[in-house]
Design goal:
Jelly Rolls; single chain; disordered N terminus; 822 residues; 17% helix; six-stranded antiparallel β-sheet; alpha+beta; TIM Barrel; 15 helices; 43 strands
Length: 822
């Protein structure tokens, strides 16, 4: 009997281990998102796994968790995973499973936006270019060729995550999945075929049987049971789901904006992001996702556009390198804590809204079972501060463009305009790497292309995507033209191109190059022709393929159709468009992998006569890894345009000669008024400087000993100023109101060395230029020194008891201003 009992016990334990008791049930109803049957309020943030490295993921995810997030959201990037049809890559920073498991190990949920159209300022919106070249294909419409490929990739991803048990019902982290992406914004021109397509998307997604909800963002007519969600800078009272069962979700709260080559930085103030979040939950929202929470880097040729920079910092709460972007990270963290503390009240959905006056709204949420309440009081006037009298609950001062959260509707616990989080002043410092790098070089081999030798020929000017399949940024167009004595010796070469950049060579000599932001221009340069056969070699270059818009996939690239003409005096014209053209994809240096130091190369490097401002040139140097843990960057000042690799890892395109200018009618400023609706033309900075000067080198790319940096310079540059630097938080500033808690911290293991400034009273100025006001507690400096110096972080209760009497006027709102050196 005892033996049978033991066997039954073992069998029971085995069955228990196989049962789905650890599963998470995810559902929705009556406007609520339900996790294991319980309504939830959720904060999420976008971190795209290919825009960082696998070694960075745990730290990024942990900082997101510490910032108060419940979930991490990411796209799945089709063209990265299936670069060639039915050939897949899920290695390195494309290891989606490893990323999702890192999210789970941190105790967070995941939101997987399979798409597989991403947009995301990613090359070609995430579509592989081979898809464009399939016979009969039409993207994002009721087209069988496209739908078959889309379903194949979607099923591949779903089967992968099922196999790894990553879905919530399997005990995994994934609670939501997305099909398609922002199609509603651009579907009009697709007509009835577009309507049929979106119906098919929903049915195809449901057929995957994943056991969790699917979402469609920006899709007002999303078929049931798809949940339509909102994207934008604001998604509050103006957005409602298309079904009363669906929860109100915000899949993209844009924390900033991407940077274009030749354009300035964008800054979206912490105060405005916080207001947008507060208003979303005031209006009944249940899940909000920051796009981006960490933007990262467009390594390789992954940036879309065209003309989008390698940096994808996005002014996100975690900067490009993974450092806290303060005060945004901390100010939002405190908002999350306050809203989470009232989760049980908010999910009851028992709310009344009252318009106090124009643009001032009071929303009262009540827990009917306990009588507990929380109030959201918002003032969305652009420049009008108000004092709201809530009678027995008190009077509350509400700055313009702000929202206050009132515990029990009578105590302000958070205001979006009152930032008590530190400001971090970051700096880039020269590393321990020798400032004088020893370079070697060699020219890009051009013998074949300047002789017109390619791999294919045709009597027309081909489209670049169709010809090169995005195997490289570069495509050579080469032809021969016979000139007799009747045609002028001095002529103009005119090329109509839809590409981003064009280099032209005539009879083996470069006659010039040209570009235009956004692509598409007419190249015109004088040439000297010789009698007989003349060789014309044109190098067309893409700088990221278009990623957004109706029929964006059909936007032409390269010198498709031309015309290409030689124009002599008196407008004597020779049209070369229907000549026999020879084509070659890519650079010889790319094909021979000059960037990989582990390969032996026939073309030897030389240290003799390092050229300056020479186009089509490869450079190489070795260096030691900078000491410490701070992020590493390369300062590319002085270089022209090209591509960079460290130890064979692509850092992406560089182009520091593209100087930032604000769009016409706008300007840059060191200050930004957060009040009023934000848009991508507000709060510019960095005018007159390179759009991107520094390029991230992840620590995991570096060896302990010697490292190799390889640059391909396309237009001509000077290596003299190229150097390695590290990014560090140099100073931490705080400016907190009485009654709050101020936390100061250094990053990267650094400690606070000194307190440069401290004033509890009415301090004046801002971080970097604080001045004492008319009153100050005499113990302020000593208290801060004792609490903070020698520590990586410290926490200060901003109260008169902490510092002593400030001797301020009774009507003066007291604040603590402090500036610490790391």
């Amino acid at each position: 009997m005892g033996l049978w009992r033991d066997k039954l016990l073992v069998l029971g334990l085995t069955l228990l281990s196989l049962s789905p008791s650890w599963a998470t049930d995810v559902s929705f109803d009556k406007g609520q998102l339900l996790i294991n049957g319980e309504p939830r309020i959720m904060f999420s943030g976008s971190i795209h796994y290919p825009r960082s490295t696998a070694e960075m993921w745990p730290d990024l995810i942990q900082k997101a968790k510490e910032g108060g997030l419940d979930a991490i959201e990411t796209y799945v990037f089709w063209n990265a995973h299936e670069p060639y049809r039915r050939e897949y890559n899920f290695e390195g920073n494309l290891d989606l499973v490893r990323f999702l498991k890192a999210v789970q190990e941190a105790g967070l949920y995941a939101i997987l936006r399979i798409g597989p159209y991403a947009c995301a300022e990613w090359n070609y919106g995430g579509f592989p270019v081979w898809l464009h070249n399939l016979p009969g294909v039409k993207f994002r419409t009721d087209n069988q060729v496209f739908k078959d490929e889309m379903q194949n990739f979607t099923t591949l991803i779903v089967d992968m995550i099922k196999k790894e048990k990553l879905l919530a019902p399997q005990g995994g982290p994934i609670i939501l999945t997305q099909i398609e992406n922002e199609y509603g914004n651009i579907m009009g021109p697709y007509g009835e075929e577009g309507q049929r397509y979106i119906q098919w998307c929903a049915k195809m997604a449901e057929s995957q049987n994943i056991g969790i909800p699917w979402v469609m963002c920006q899709q007002e007519n999303a078929p049931q049971p798809m949940i339509n969600t909102c994207n934008g800078f604001y998604c509050d009272f103006g957005f409602k789901p298309n079904n009363p069962k669906s929860p109100k979700m915000w899949t993209e709260n844009w924390t900033g904006w991407f940077i274009g080559w030749g354009l300035p930085f964008h800054h979206r103030a912490a105060e405005d992001v916080a207001l947008a979040v507060g208003r979303f939950f005031q209006s009944g929202g249940v899940l909000q996702n920051y796009y981006m929470y960490h933007g990262g880097t467009n390594f390789g040729r992954s940036s879309g556009g065209p003309y989008i920079t390698t940096s994808y910092d996005y002014d996100a709460p975690l900067d490009e390198y993974g450092l806290l972007n303060q005060p945004k990270w901390g100010h939002l963290k405190r908002l999350h804590e306050v809203i989470k503390s009232a989760e049980k009240i908010l999910v009851q959905q028992s709310v009344t809204h009252k318009d106090i006056e124009s643009n001032v709204k009071l929303s009262t949420f009540t827990d009917n079972s306990t009588g507990n309440s929380i109030c959201f009081l918002s003032n969305v006037n652009n420049n009008k501060d108000v004092t709201v009298d809530l009678q027995n609950n008190g009077k509350f001062f509400l700055p313009a463009w702000s929202l206050s959260i009132l515990a029990d509707c009578n105590k302000e616990v958070y205001n979006t305009a009152k930032v008590s989080t530190q400001i971090s002043l970051k700096t880039k410092k020269p590393s321990n790497v020798d400032s004088e790098l020893n370079w070697v070089w060699k020219p890009e081999p051009l013998k074949d292309t300047l002789k017109g030798k390619g791999s294919s020929t045709t009597n027309q000017l081909l489209e670049q995507k169709a010809t090169a399949t995005d195997a490289s940024d570069y495509l050579w167009y080469m032809t021969r033209v016979k000139v007799d004595a009747s045609f002028p010796k001095h002529a103009i070469l005119r090329v109509n191109t839809t590409g981003s950049v064009l280099h032209a060579f005539v009879n083996k000599k470069q006659i010039g190059y040209e570009w235009q932001s956004g692509g598409g221009f007419v190249f015109e340069k004088p040439v000297i022709l010789k009698k007989g056969v003349n060789l014309i070699s044109l190098l067309s270059i893409t700088v990221g393929l278009k990623n957004y818009g109706s029929f964006f996939d059909l936007a032409p690239n390269g010198i498709v159709g031309g015309p290409v003409q030689l124009i002599g005096s008196g407008n004597v014209t020779k049209d070369l468009s229907l000549n026999e053209w020879s084509y070659k994809i890519g650079l010889n240096g790319e094909k021979k992998q000059f960037y990989d130091n582990n390969l032996s190369h026939k073309n030897k490097w030389t240290s003799e006569g390092i050229p300056i401002n020479r186009s089509m040139t490869w450079y190489k140097t070795t260096f030691k890894a900078p000491l410490g843990r701070n992020p590493v960057v390369i300062d590319m000042q002085g270089m022209g345009k090209g591509h960079a690799w460290v130890n064979g890892h692509s850092l992406g395109r560089f182009w520091p000669t593209m100087i930032a200018q604000a769009p016409q009618g706008y300007s840059c400023s060191d200050t930004c008024d957060y009040r009023g609706n934000y848009n991508d033309h507000k709060c510019f900075s960095n005018c007159g400087n390179p759009s991107q000067r520094w390029y991230h080198v992840p620590r995991s790319f570096l060896n302990d000993e010697d490292n190799t940096l390889v640059l391909f310079e396309e237009m001509g540059g000077n290596l003299a100023k190229v150097n390695f630097q590290t990014v560090t938080v140099e100073k931490a500033c705080g400016n907190a109101y009485e009654g709050s808690t101020l936390e100061l911290s250094c990053q990267g293991g650094q400690t606070i060395s000194t307190i440069e400034f401290a004033n509890f009273g009415d301090p004046q100025g801002k971080c970097g230029s604080f001045k004492k006001g008319s009153c100050d507690a005499t113990n302020t400096l000593s208290v801060l020194e004792k609490a903070c110096v020698g520590k990586e972080s410290c926490s200060i209760n901003v109260l008169e008891e902490t510092f002593g009497s400030s001797n301020c006027n009774i009507n003066t709102p007291k604040r603590l201003a402090v500036q610490a050196v790391c």
